Amino acid sequence: MTPTSAGWRAVSSAAPRTRRRAARSVVRISPGRTRSRSAPARPPEAFDPAGAVGPDPGRQRRGGTGARRSPVATAVRKGERRTRKPPTNSRTTRLRPAPNPLRRRNASGCRAAQRSRGRRLPLFRGCTARSTVTRRGRGASGGRDVLTLVARHRPGALIRTGRKALGWRQADLGARLGCSRSTVSRLEQGSLSDLALIRRAAGEVGVPGHLLIASLDLTTRMVPKVADDPSPAQEDPMRRRTVITAVGLATPLSLLGGLETALAVTPDPSGSPVPLDARLAAARTLFDAGRHTQLVEDLPGLLGDAHHAAEARQDVDYARLSAAYTLAATILNKLGAYRQSRLVADRATTYANISGSPLAAAAAARELAAVLRHQGQEAAAQRHIEAAVARVEATGLNNAAQASAYAQMLASSAYTAAIADDRDQALAMIREAARAARDLPGQAPPGRLFPITPAAIDLYAVGVHWSLGDAGAALEAGKGLHPAQFATAERKSRMHTDLARAWHLRGRPEQAAAELLKAARVSRSEVRDRPPIRQIVTDLQSSHPRTAGVRELTALVGPTR
Q1: Which residues, 6+ apart, have CB-to-CB distance to 300 below 8 Å?
Q2: Is 146 helix (H, G, I), strand (E, B) or coil?
Q3: What one-character DSSP code corresponds to residue 121?
Q4: CB 510 within 8 A of CB 549
Q5: Fold for domain 104-215?
Q6: 460 contacts 430 by C-beta, under 8 angstroms
Q7: Bridge partners (DSSP) listed for residue 8
Q8: CA distances from 263 to 224, 282, 283, 320, 353 (A)
Q9: Which end of the chain has fewer beta carbons closer than 10 Å to its terminal beta carbon, N or C?
Q10: What is the DSSP string of 155-186?
Q11: What is the DSSP string of 353-382?
Q12: How does strand 109-110 pair with strand 8-11?
């Protein structure tokens, strides 16, 4: 056979008596030889790193009898880019291996992603959230290393492990997530706390959901580390938005000890035979009826049952758990327990992001924005609301539930902007919310997560103008409202308290007292348990004790000091 242009020829590496066996071996190349007819060499492109290799001639001369894998095959199996040089002898030289399939790329990115999406990598098989690591960091076992990362609560390192197992670069993963390489780097290092992005990245690289949850330390019974809340900022006295402490103001606050214990250590399941969805609906009914004491008593058991259900690691179970924490944050915000509400709202947001439900995330973001407003962090509250609005809008608003969520988040965004004194943004958003709610029914169907109606948007407009300090515009926005437009006692009473705030801001104590009396007759807890409303009652008692309705209001609500 004619020599090649490089002066190399291929021959069989086996002895003549084992020519048939050598034909199945990896052909070695040596200068000055011809290619054997009985042992045709496979081209380098057909090199199979997982296939068998022939006996090593050097080992046979040393008396060895077993076959040893080629260093080239070993290097390719490990996914290395470089080629290791085999032992030097007169019959062998270096053979270029085939490219690693994990390194091959096409126009859409890594080809391996098309095979791995939605499938669990072998690296993660056999790993469970309940597994233990007896000797951390020892050995090169993939499963043991994965469990070590889970035990150390390093979700970013888990994502990095999955990415490297696929042979991807950080830029490859970033292209799939729609972010930059530096963002992926910060995510893997643990300096990025975007749970939605973490969940998407884990799904792309094949990290199982239960391992991700365990690495986030969401299923343990430990107190999460939450930064100390700033002290509530004093609000503008011109608008009577004074934030006061909640200690000793109302009967339900004496029950917060049990709820705080449930937040510190997740309670055991209550063992109730009632389905969790029915219990969530019953708890929401207690809130709508103004039965705050009973709701606070029931919340620890509800949270325990929701945590127990979430052990199934299904998205819908995490959405239910988020809904339970969102309801807890709602009642804590109403009672003025903002420090506890901050922790609860953070948990609601975490579980909502894990569930992947944009509506659950929007409900949690709404409560988190509310507590941030009370803590004087209006800019952070607005960012949360705007992100939630964008997520809901990205659903396409294809059904009434999504449309009502969108209208609700626009109204919340308007109120948040008003608290931040951004008049133009607040008025623009409340007009957009009115347009979004135009086609919604006058009464929301039972069980809807966001039971917003056109009348509810008008009530939000009252709050927006009051927050902007315009009492006349607030009363004008609420002149067409009446209790029959609202289905629950909480909303009926809220209508009266919002109008009372507007009258109080305008300096009309008699009208303010009249509205508060109407609110207390519908739901006494709406006046008694809300610190801002109790502050108005206190002002009326001290400044206008002889005004009509103030004495009756005091008797109905009770002393405020």
Answers
A1: 258, 259, 261, 262, 267
A2: helix
A3: -
A4: yes
A5: 434 Repressor (Amino-terminal Domain) (1.10.260)
A6: yes
A7: 31
A8: 9, 21, 18, 17, 19
A9: C
A10: HHHHHHHHHHHHT--HHHHHHHHTS-HHHHHH
A11: HHHT-HHHHHHHHHHHHHHHHHTT-HHHHH
A12: unpaired
CA dihedral 97, 101, 102, 106 (to 10 degrees): 120
Q: Where are any strands of DSSP class E within 409-508? A: none
Cα distance between residue 124 and residue 548, in whole Å = 72
Which residues are registered as beta bridge partners of 30? 9
What span, in angstroms and rounded, lies between the C-alpha atoms of 392 and 405? Answer: 7
Domains of the chain, by residue range, sit at 1-99, 104-215
Q: Are 432 and 393 in contact (CB under 8 A)?
A: no
Rg (CA), the chain: 34
Residue whose C-alpha is closest to residue 270's, from 230, 237, 301, 229? 301
CA 214 to chain centre: 14
Both tokens of residue 13? Answer: 């590496």
Backbone angles phi, psi at 281, to 5 degrees: -65, -40
Give the closest residue to 159 by CA, choosing from 129, 203, 112, 224. 203
Going residue by residue through the chain (561 aa), what tens digit of pLDDT does each one get? 444 434 333 333 344 444 444 444 444 444 444 444 444 444 443 333 333 333 343 434 444 444 444 443 444 444 444 444 445 444 444 444 444 433 444 333 444 444 444 444 555 655 554 443 333 333 334 556 788 888 888 888 889 999 998 999 999 999 998 889 988 998 898 887 777 788 888 888 888 877 887 787 654 433 333 333 444 333 343 333 333 333 334 444 556 777 777 777 888 888 889 999 999 999 999 999 999 989 999 999 999 999 999 888 888 999 999 999 999 999 999 988 888 899 899 899 889 988 889 999 999 999 999 999 988 888 889 988 998 999 899 999 999 999 999 999 999 999 999 999 999 999 999 999 999 999 999 999 988 899 999 999 999 999 999 999 999 999 999 999 999 999 999 999 999 999 999 999 999 999 999 999 999 999 999 998 899 999 999 999 999 999 998 999 988 877 654
Closest-CA residue to 377 (of 240, 266, 285, 243) = 243
Q: Which residues pair with 106 in a beta bridge?
A: 109
Element spanning 309, H or E: helix 292-310
Residue 148 amino acid letter: T
Q: Coil, helix or strand for 330?
A: helix
Beta pairing, strands 28-31 & 109-110 = unpaired
